[in-house]
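note to self — DONT lose this again. spent like an hour looking for the file last time. sequence + predicted structure for the chain T wanted, 96 res
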Amino acid sequence: MTDCNSSERTLTELKIARAYVRLSSIPEGDLAPVLLATSGSCEIRMFRGPEVHLDGVPLFWLELYDNSTKMSLDGFLCYRIKDAVSVFEDFVSQVS
């Protein structure tokens, strides 16, 4: 059971890393998100982080977005890809 959870976390981390590479290839100034996952009317999206932050420079912003209401349901500023895994898992559980 631990191996399965570890494998799932690794796959999620890889998915987030690939999305970050795609996000990094978007021209600076373009605020287009990178889609990570969809469930029903909800999407988990990644945006470029703000340029300056007091605690350092974040890599990206993860957002749980509801297309039916056109509203953000939750969001989190991520400084490391590993940190984003638990946020992604939390967003998935929120839409389940």
